[in-house]
Design a protein that fits this description.
mainly alpha, Hypothetical protein af1432, 61% helix, globular, disordered N terminus, binds fe (ii) ion
Protein backbone atom coordinates (compact mmCIF):
# COMPACT_ATOMS: atom_id res chain seq x y z
CA UNK A 1 0.00 0.00 0.00
CA UNK A 2 1.23 3.46 -0.74
CA UNK A 3 0.03 6.91 0.14
CA UNK A 4 2.68 8.57 -2.00
CA UNK A 5 2.03 12.23 -2.81
CA UNK A 6 -0.45 12.55 0.00
CA UNK A 7 0.92 15.99 0.80
CA UNK A 8 2.62 18.83 -1.05
CA UNK A 9 4.39 21.80 0.51
CA UNK A 10 2.78 24.93 -0.87
CA UNK A 11 4.79 27.57 1.02
CA UNK A 12 8.15 27.88 2.70
CA UNK A 13 6.32 28.57 5.96
CA UNK A 14 4.55 25.22 5.70
CA UNK A 15 7.83 23.48 4.96
CA UNK A 16 9.56 25.18 7.89
CA UNK A 17 6.71 24.21 10.23
CA UNK A 18 7.09 20.63 9.04
CA UNK A 19 10.86 20.71 9.64
CA UNK A 20 10.27 22.05 13.14
CA UNK A 21 8.03 19.03 13.80
CA UNK A 22 10.86 16.77 12.61
CA UNK A 23 12.96 18.05 15.54
CA UNK A 24 10.60 16.06 17.77
CA UNK A 25 10.12 13.01 15.52
CA UNK A 26 12.33 9.98 16.16
CA UNK A 27 14.30 9.06 13.04
CA UNK A 28 13.03 6.04 11.18
CA UNK A 29 16.55 5.04 10.17
CA UNK A 30 19.00 6.53 12.69
CA UNK A 31 18.34 5.05 16.10
CA UNK A 32 18.53 7.53 18.96
CA UNK A 33 18.31 10.59 16.69
CA UNK A 34 15.39 12.72 15.58
CA UNK A 35 14.48 13.01 11.90
CA UNK A 36 15.90 16.54 12.03
CA UNK A 37 19.18 15.48 13.70
CA UNK A 38 19.63 13.01 10.86
CA UNK A 39 18.81 15.59 8.15
CA UNK A 40 21.09 18.20 9.74
CA UNK A 41 23.98 15.73 9.90
CA UNK A 42 23.41 14.75 6.27
CA UNK A 43 23.39 18.44 5.21
CA UNK A 44 26.54 19.18 7.23
CA UNK A 45 28.42 16.24 5.68
CA UNK A 46 27.44 17.39 2.18
CA UNK A 47 28.49 20.96 3.01
CA UNK A 48 31.94 19.69 3.96
CA UNK A 49 32.17 17.60 0.79
CA UNK A 50 30.60 20.01 -1.72
CA UNK A 51 30.75 23.49 -0.15
CA UNK A 52 29.70 25.20 -3.37
CA UNK A 53 26.61 23.04 -3.96
CA UNK A 54 24.01 24.52 -1.60
CA UNK A 55 21.17 22.78 -3.47
CA UNK A 56 22.70 19.38 -2.75
CA UNK A 57 23.10 20.36 0.92
CA UNK A 58 19.46 21.47 1.13
CA UNK A 59 18.42 18.19 -0.51
CA UNK A 60 20.40 16.41 2.22
CA UNK A 61 18.52 18.37 4.87
CA UNK A 62 15.17 17.49 3.29
CA UNK A 63 15.83 13.96 2.01
CA UNK A 64 13.69 12.15 4.58
CA UNK A 65 10.66 14.46 4.81
CA UNK A 66 8.66 11.60 3.27
CA UNK A 67 9.24 9.34 6.28
CA UNK A 68 6.39 10.83 8.23
CA UNK A 69 3.75 10.63 5.52
CA UNK A 70 4.72 7.63 3.42
CA UNK A 71 5.60 3.97 3.57
CA UNK A 72 9.35 3.39 4.04
CA UNK A 73 9.57 1.87 0.57
CA UNK A 74 8.25 5.02 -1.08
CA UNK A 75 9.56 7.75 1.20
CA UNK A 76 12.06 9.15 -1.30
CA UNK A 77 9.52 9.41 -4.08
CA UNK A 78 6.86 10.80 -1.74
CA UNK A 79 9.26 13.41 -0.40
CA UNK A 80 10.32 14.44 -3.89
CA UNK A 81 6.71 14.82 -5.00
CA UNK A 82 5.83 16.87 -1.93
CA UNK A 83 8.81 19.19 -2.49
CA UNK A 84 8.83 19.53 -6.31
CA UNK A 85 6.59 22.56 -6.80
CA UNK A 86 8.12 24.52 -3.93
CA UNK A 87 11.80 23.57 -4.19
CA UNK A 88 12.21 22.76 -7.89
CA UNK A 89 13.13 19.73 -9.94
CA UNK A 90 16.76 19.28 -8.90
CA UNK A 91 16.14 19.14 -5.15
CA UNK A 92 13.03 17.01 -5.72
CA UNK A 93 14.99 14.61 -7.97
CA UNK A 94 17.79 14.29 -5.42
CA UNK A 95 15.29 13.50 -2.66
CA UNK A 96 13.46 10.97 -4.87
CA UNK A 97 16.71 9.35 -6.00
CA UNK A 98 18.17 8.72 -2.56
CA UNK A 99 16.32 5.39 -2.30
CA UNK A 100 17.30 4.09 -5.78
CA UNK A 101 20.84 5.39 -5.03
CA UNK A 102 21.03 2.89 -2.17
CA UNK A 103 19.98 0.07 -4.50
CA UNK A 104 22.49 1.33 -7.09
CA UNK A 105 25.36 1.40 -4.60
CA UNK A 106 24.54 -2.03 -3.17
CA UNK A 107 24.63 -3.41 -6.71
CA UNK A 108 27.76 -1.64 -7.96
CA UNK A 109 29.98 -1.16 -4.87
CA UNK A 110 30.70 -4.31 -2.85
CA UNK A 111 32.11 -2.25 0.06
CA UNK A 112 28.93 -0.21 0.38
CA UNK A 113 26.67 -2.96 1.69
CA UNK A 114 28.99 -3.37 4.69
CA UNK A 115 28.41 0.29 5.59
CA UNK A 116 24.64 -0.07 5.83
CA UNK A 117 23.02 0.02 9.23
CA UNK A 118 20.90 -3.00 10.26
CA UNK A 119 17.75 -0.91 9.63
CA UNK A 120 19.00 0.07 6.19
CA UNK A 121 19.66 -3.59 5.27
CA UNK A 122 16.16 -4.45 6.51
CA UNK A 123 14.50 -1.81 4.32
CA UNK A 124 16.61 -2.63 1.26
CA UNK A 125 14.52 -5.67 0.39
CA UNK A 126 11.32 -3.66 0.70
CA UNK A 127 12.81 -1.04 -1.60
CA UNK A 128 13.58 -3.55 -4.36
CA UNK A 129 16.97 -5.05 -3.40
CA UNK A 130 19.73 -5.19 -6.00
CA UNK A 131 19.24 -3.47 -9.36
CA UNK A 132 19.11 -5.31 -12.67
CA UNK A 133 21.69 -4.28 -15.29
CA UNK A 134 18.92 -2.31 -17.03
CA UNK A 135 18.10 -0.47 -13.82
CA UNK A 136 21.80 0.33 -13.26
CA UNK A 137 22.04 1.77 -16.78
CA UNK A 138 18.88 3.85 -16.27
CA UNK A 139 20.18 5.13 -12.94
CA UNK A 140 23.53 6.15 -14.47
CA UNK A 141 21.73 7.98 -17.27
CA UNK A 142 19.86 10.20 -14.82
CA UNK A 143 21.30 13.74 -14.84
CA UNK A 144 21.33 13.86 -11.02
CA UNK A 145 22.27 10.24 -10.36
CA UNK A 146 25.89 10.95 -9.40
CA UNK A 147 24.96 13.67 -6.90
CA UNK A 148 22.27 11.45 -5.40
CA UNK A 149 25.03 8.90 -4.73
CA UNK A 150 26.87 11.58 -2.73
CA UNK A 151 23.67 12.30 -0.82
CA UNK A 152 23.19 8.60 -0.17
CA UNK A 153 26.70 8.15 1.18
CA UNK A 154 26.17 11.16 3.47
CA UNK A 155 22.83 9.63 4.53
CA UNK A 156 24.62 6.48 5.72
CA UNK A 157 27.11 8.56 7.72
CA UNK A 158 24.48 10.87 9.25
CA UNK A 159 23.60 8.55 12.12
CA UNK A 160 26.02 9.63 14.84
CA UNK A 161 24.52 10.18 18.28
CA UNK A 162 25.81 13.39 19.85
CA UNK A 163 27.44 14.81 16.71
CA UNK A 164 27.55 18.61 16.97
CA UNK A 165 26.32 20.19 13.73
CA UNK A 166 24.59 23.51 12.93
CA UNK A 167 20.88 23.54 13.72
CA UNK A 168 17.85 24.26 11.56
CA UNK A 169 18.29 28.04 11.90
CA UNK A 170 21.57 27.78 9.98
CA UNK A 171 19.65 26.39 6.98
CA UNK A 172 16.54 28.57 6.84
CA UNK A 173 18.01 31.11 4.39
CA UNK A 174 19.42 28.40 2.13
CA UNK A 175 15.99 26.74 2.02
CA UNK A 176 14.32 30.09 1.20
CA UNK A 177 16.88 30.76 -1.54
CA UNK A 178 15.79 27.59 -3.35
CA UNK A 179 12.07 28.28 -3.23
CA UNK A 180 10.75 28.53 -6.76
CA UNK A 181 9.35 31.92 -7.74
FE1 LIG B 1 18.10 9.24 5.63
Amino acid sequence: MSDTASIAFTSVEALEAFLEEMIHTPSDEAEGLSEMDHGLQCAAILKAERPEDIGLQVAGLLHDVGHTFSHIRDHGEAGGLALRDLMGDRIADLVSLHVPAKRYLVTTDPAYRALLSPRSIETLALQGGDMSPEEVAAYEAHPHGAEAVLLRRADEQAKVIGLDVPGLDAWRQAVKNHVQA
